[in-house]
Amino acid sequence: MKQGIHPEYHFITVKMTDGSTFQTKSTWGKDGDQMALDIDPLAHPAWTGGNAKLMDTGGRVSKFKNKYAGLGF
Questions:
Q1: pTM of the entire structure?
Q2: Edge-to-edge, what's the strand order for the sheet holding 34-36?
């Protein structure tokens, strides 16, 4: 393997949508940083069976719905 081309691999804390946290190794951020998730397996319909609503951060979901409203979805 070439030296000096790989990103630093360190521990970060991940905060889920329910407030729970866990530690994992990542190349994201710096050692000890906290990543707060907007969508995770606890809130995303793909993992919850569709009972939860998708959080619309930045208006992307509503923009999509407005753009394709006439197609009968």
A1: 0.57
A2: 21-26, 10-15, 34-36
Query: Tokens 């995770």 — which residue?
Result: 40
* Cβ-contact 42, 19 below 8 angstroms: no
Spatial separation of the C-alpha atoms in residues 27 and 70, rounded to whole Å: 43
Reference 35, options 45, 44, 47, 23; nearest CA is 23
Strands 21-26 and 10-15: antiparallel
**What are the tokens at 64?**
């999509």
Q: What would the pLDDT profile of 1-57 be if each residue is shown by its tens digit?
A: 788 898 889 999 999 989 999 999 999 999 999 999 888 887 777 777 765 566 666
Q: Taking Cα atoms as reference points, which of 17, 40, 19, 37 lies closest to residue 28?
A: 37
Task: Find the radius of gyration of the CA atoms of the chain.
Answer: 18
